[in-house]
Amino acid sequence: MNRNPFEHNYFIGYINQVTPQYVKVHFPSSVLLKSFVFRGEQYNGGLVGNYVVIEGEQHGFLGKMLEISLPENERLELSEKSFQNKEFHPTGKIEILLSFDLFNPTEVEKGLNSLPSVGAKVFVCSSNFIKGYFKGFGVKKENTNPPVFSLGCLTYDKSTEVEISQQAIFGRHCAVVGTTGGGKSYTVSKLIEGIIVNKGKAILIDATGEYATHDKQSYSATPAILANSAFFHYTNLTIGDLFVLLRPSGQVQAPKLAEAIKSLKVLRVLENTYLTSTNITKVDDGFKVKIRDGIEELIKVDGGTVTKENQLMRPFNRIYEQNMVDIESFNSDFDIRLLASQIIKECIWDIDKNDHMKWGGRNDTHLNNCISLILRTKSLINNPLFDVIFGFQKDKTDEGELTTEMQKFLNGDKNLLRIGFEQVGYDFQAREILANAIGKNLLEKSRQGDFKSKPVVLFIDEAHQYLNRSVKDEYFEMTRLDSFDQIAKECRKHGLFLCLATQMPRDIPQGTLSQMGTFIVHRLINPFDKDAVENACSSANKNSLSFLPVLGAGEAILMGVDFPMPVVLKVNKPIVEPNSATPQFVLP
Fold first, then answer.
1. Residue 65: which of 116, 24, 27 has the closest Cα?
2. Residue 579 lies in a domain
3. What are the Cα distances from residue 325, in Å, to 84, 246, 266, 347?
4. How remote is the C-alpha of 311 from its chain's centroid?
5. What angle do CA 419, 423, 427 make, to 5 degrees?
6. pLDDT at position 3, please?
7. DSSP result, 156-212
8. How many CB atoms lie under 10 A from the CB of residue 258?
9. Both 520 and 480 in a single domain?
10. Residue-range definition of the domain harbouring residue 81
11. Eight-state DSSP code of residue 547
12. Where is the Helicase HerA central domain (predicted)?
């Protein structure tokens, strides 16, 4: 961008019509549209899709050629011989993309507040001139050394490299969309490659294992393959996640489940504190709690669960009140293997009619209503599918626990952690619940400020499998799995950024899609998918989106909040290619 973009050697025509949507250009001679070489660079003034610059009265303008045609009275004279020997006077249509300071072309104006006037000169745009704009997109003036990486090259000019700042791509979340075979996987690998080049950190939720090619690279941490080498311990699930897994009905089962969890949490507090507390004493049938000087009352424990039937409420309530913050926290820090037995113990009357200081006796009506919940709880804990994913029979400290592995990765010097879902089954919505729990864990970390100084990009491949999902059956009211939606809406300022890859943007919640500041859009054929992108990305205009059905493999439109103009580019092949090739039919 050091040269003057308005040199006469690059002149091709004059503006002869101006509208709010586009401007038209008159070419004084068809000779100006022919290819030529100047200062070692080849220029093509007469190709649709090429970039041009326009010299206005107060601003310069960058535009893209949309259409070139001959006047009606010259078309009948057109032939191969006449085109070589005779001058024609074509006209063209140009889309104005951005304006810049006339005397400082590197300074892009915010918004398009003016248009060129009739008679303004049009010049062909060099690759060096436009490359400088790409690097500056999304970069603040005070950031003198932003991390940039090469994403690809312009579709209509392979010599023009598209180098983009990492801030522009991920700073407001990113979505990579397109039909199958359009090149999404290659683009995601290229984006990961850009983060690695700039020593950043990325966590990838890999739905099918196609990014396993990254596992043996020096920048990659040991992959966490769920249901194989890794598990997400149930104590890291929230109480809401447990409710989703167990699906209690609202009137009786949900309150009993909540009480059972509360009782087991109280028991965990007692087990963790009795050795260091002067107010708690462990005895054969439970724990004695000192109420006041000389008075101790029993919390009865039988078979590892709290027995409340006909027992005093006061010692239990005393421990609960003293540890309310921990007990009412969202984590599931208790022995889940005892949950079914504890639910049975909770099926009692709320109060003893003869002594209001005690709980009542067994309530058979509540027990009968909770039978299905008890059976589901036992089935969940003993289900091999869920056990291998959530580690119901394991300790949180066992090797391969996912949150521990994620923390090691965040504290370490590796740049990529792949969380593999390829061995997680599709039954019982295990994938959706697990991905949502991982997202919620990262959401809480971001709220605590863990990513402020070292931002992290969370890639979600096949995002339509996990977003816009909810759990509902005959026992349980609908509950949305919305952790990624919350990350999209609030985590940008916390340093946690999303990059969604999906072939069906229409299946992504509109609220989440609207939070995506950057779109890399590969070929889209379905009109509903196209509409979803158009509605979510305000900078997308109809002229740019009209290219979507005809984009080739690897070609994409890059657009977003930090991009003053849409860019049609061919994404470069990544160094480490994903395993996404289509099997070929062959003769036997």
1. 24
2. no
3. 84, 24, 11, 25
4. 50
5. 115
6. 64
7. TEEEEEEEEEHHHHHTT-EEEE--TTSSHHHHHHHHHHHHHHTT-EEEEEESSSTTG
8. 15
9. yes
10. 8-136
11. T
12. 151-296
For residue 135, what are its two tokens? 């690097």
**Under DSSP, is residue 342 helix (H, G, I), strand (E, B) or coil?**
helix
Q: Residue 210 sits in a domain of what CATH number?
A: 3.40.50.300
The residues with which 123 forms a beta bridge, in sequence order, are 11, 53
CA distance 556 to 521: 5
Asked if residue 285 lies in contact with residue 354, where contact means CB atoms within 8 angstroms, the answer is no
Contacts of 146 (CB under 8 A, 6+ apart): 139, 165, 166, 167
Chain position carrying tokens 């470069």: 572
**pLDDT at residue 540, as a whole number:** 47
For residues 175 and 525, the answer to whether their CB atoms sit within 8 Å is no
Find all residues with CB under 8 Å of 122, minimum gap 6, and list them: 11, 12, 13, 14, 15, 25, 52, 53, 54, 94
Q: What pLDDT, on the 0 to 100 scale, is given for residue 262?
A: 96
- Residue 159 belongs to some domain of the structure: no
**CA dihedral over 297, 301, 307, 310, signed as positive or negative:** negative
For 403-428, how does the pLDDT look when each residue is reduced to its tens digit (9 = 90+)? 999 999 999 999 999 999 999 987 76
Tell whether 463 and 525 lie within a shared domain. yes
CA dist 537 to 397, 491, 512, 530, Å?
A: 44, 19, 12, 11
| Eight-class DSSP state of 350 | S
Q: Residue 548 domain-assigned?
A: yes
- Write down the residue that tokens 């932003």 correspond to: 146
Q: Copy the structure tokens of residue 505.
A: 């943007």
In terms of C-beta density within 10 A (0-12 exposed, 13-18 middle, 19 or more buried), how is residue 119 classed? exposed
Report whether 402 contacts 445 (CB < 8 A).
no
Ranges of beta strands (E only) in 256-354 are 280-283, 286-292, 295-302, 305-306
1: in domain = no
* Cβ neighbours of 122 (radius 10 Å): 28
- β-strands 201-206, 469-473: how paired? unpaired
* Token pair recorded at residue 484: 């990624």
d(CA 562, CA 519): 11
Q: Which two tokens stand for residue 382?
A: 């003993």
Other CB atoms within a 10 A radius of the CB of residue 380 amount to 22
Question: What 3-state DSSP class applies to 78?
Answer: coil
Tokens representing 526 are 């379905």
